[in-house]
C-alpha cells in the first residue's frame, strides 16, 4: 500500500529534476549531470556488490570501454554520439562476458583484485590504440556533439546556445538513465530472479537447496551492470568531450567515489545510492575549496560507516524507524476470510 | 646475451615485488584480510624513512632501522583499533575499510609532502655494479633481491620454528580451536600486521632507493604485490617469492620488446597463470 505514495513522489521528483535546465544555470546543469552519472554508476555497483556479493574494484573497465566505443563510433565510423552511447553499452556488456569467465573463477578478495587487474590491462591496451590518440587520448571532433540528434529541437524549445543545448540534452539523458535504472533495479529485485539473488546473499546453502543457481544469477547481474555502466561511460564522455586512457579507466573517479557513495548511503539497499549521492554532492559543495581534504573526509566517513553503521544512512534509518517506503519483499497474501 | 640480461634484471625486479608482497601474503594467509592500503602503507614507510633521514642526518639504511619499530607500532595499532573490528565472514567490510584507509593515507601524504616525486639519497652505492659472468648487475638490485630472500627465510623460520608461528598457523587453520588452546586471535592478528608493516618498511627502503616515489604510486604497487600473492598461492611465502619473480620477469621481458608494454606484460602473466591455476602455483591453505 505504501508504494502508492512512493511512486507519485518519485514521479514528482523526476519532474522537478527535469525542469532544472529551464530555471537553473548552465553550470548547475553540468554539475547535476555528473551527479546523475555518479548515481547511475552507484546503482550498478550496489547491484553488484550489495546484492550479488561481487566486490568489483574494476568497474572503471566498463566506463572506459563505453567511452572509447562511443568515441570510436563517432570518429572512426562517423556515427551520431547518441548511437555511440548505445554501442558503448553493448560493447561493455560484450566485453564483460570473457571478463566474467576469468573473474568468476576467483573468490571474494581474489575477485576484487582480478577485476582491478583486468581494468588496468584495458587502460594500457587502449593506450595502444593509435587511431584514438594512444596514450595521450583525443577529443571529439568539433561540432560532433552539437550535431547530435535532439539538440536542434532543444535549441528551438529553450532558446539557448548550441553548447548549452548539448548540456541540456546529456542532462536529460542522464536523468532518464538514472530513473530507468532505479525503476529497473526495483522491478528486478522484486522479481523471481531478484529474490533468488537476495536469498543467495543471505544464505547461499539454503538458496541452492530451493533451486537457485547462484553462478548463473551473478553472471547475469555482472553482464547487465556492465551494460548500464558502459552506457553511463559513453554519456559521460560526450559531456567531457575528450578521452584518454588515464581518465577513461580512472580507479578514483569511476570506482572509488562510487564505492563511497554506496557505502555511505547504504550498501545492499535500493535507496542507498540515492542518499549517498546527495551526501557526496553536499560534501563536494562544502569542501570544494580544500581539494585533498575532501577525499580524506570521504574516506574517513566511509570507514566510520563500516565500523558503526554497516548498512549506511538508509539502513540505519530503516532499523531505527521500522518504516520502509520502498520494500523489496512482497507482503503476505491476504487470507481469504 | 640480451635475453639473459633481461631475464636477470627481471628476476632482481621480482625480488622487489616479493618484498612488496611478503607482508600482504602474511596477513592474508593468517586472517584472510585483504589490505587494500598495503601499497599506500609502503609509500608512507618511504616518506617516514625520508623524514627520519632528513631530521637526523642518517643514511637511509639507518633511518629505515629507526622506522622499523615505528611501523610495527603503527601496524599493531591499526589492527587492534580498526581492522579487528571488521574481520568476519563477510569480506566486504574489511575491503571497504582498507580501501577508505588507502584514500585517506594517499591524500594525507599529498597534503603533507605535495605531489613532487622524491628519492632516498643512498649515495655512491646506487651507481655501483658487479660483473657476474656474462652480465653486469647493479649492486642495489642485488641487495634488494638478497633482502627479499632473507625476509622470506626469516618469515618462514618465524612461521615454522617459533611459538608465535605456531600460533599464527593455528589461528589461520581454525581460530575457534586456537582460542581453546589459550591463543587470543586478536592479539595474534595485531602482531601479524605489525610484522607485515616491518616487512613493508624494508620494501619501502628499496622502493625509495630504486626510483622516484610520490604519494600516488601506492595502488599500483599494491596491484603488483597482490598479483604476486595470488600467483604464489594463499599462505605460501615461497610461493609469494615465485609470484614476484613471475611478475618481475614478465615486466622485464615486456619492457625489452616495447617500453609501453612493461606493466601490461606483468598483468597478462597474472591472468595467464590464473587461467591455468585459479588457486595459484603453491596453495597451502584453502580459502
Overview of the molecule:
The complex is a heterodimer of chains A (337) and B (287). Chain A is mainly alpha-helical and 337 residues long. Chain A has 15 helices and two strands. Chain A has helices spanning 3-23, 26-51, 60-75, 81-103, 108-126, 151-158, 162-190, 192-202, 204-209, 214-240, 245-248, 251-265, 272-287, 292-308, 312-321; strands at 138-139, 242-243. In chain A, strands 1-2 form a two-stranded antiparallel sheet. Chain A is globular, with a radius of gyration of 20 Å. The model of chain A has no long low-confidence stretch (mean pLDDT 88). In chain B, a hairpin with a 2-residue loop joins strand 1 and strand 2 (135-138). Chains A and B meet through helix 5, helix 12 and helix 14 of A and helix 3, helix 4, helix 9 and helix 11 of B.
Concise synopsis of the structure shown:
Chain A has 337 residues and is mainly alpha-helical. Chain A has helices spanning 3-23, 26-51, 60-75, 81-103, 108-126, 151-158, 162-190, 192-202, 204-209, 214-240, 245-248, 251-265, 272-287, 292-308, 312-321; strands at 138-139, 242-243. Chain B has eleven helices and two strands.
Shape of chain B: globular
Number of helices of chain A: 15
Oligomeric category: heterodimer
| Main sheet properties of chain B | 2 strands, antiparallel
Following the backbone from N to C, one meets helices and strands of chain A in this order, namely HHHHHEHHHHHEHHHHH
> What structural category do the secondary elements of chain A indicate?
mainly alpha
What distance separates the N and C termini of chain A? Answer: 20 Å
Counted by DSSP, the helix tally of chain B is: 11
Strand-pairing-aware structural class of chain B? mainly alpha
Unreliably modeled segments of chain B? none
**Major sheet of chain A: size, sense and barrel closure?**
2 strands, antiparallel
Low-confidence runs of chain A: none
Number of domains of chain B: 1
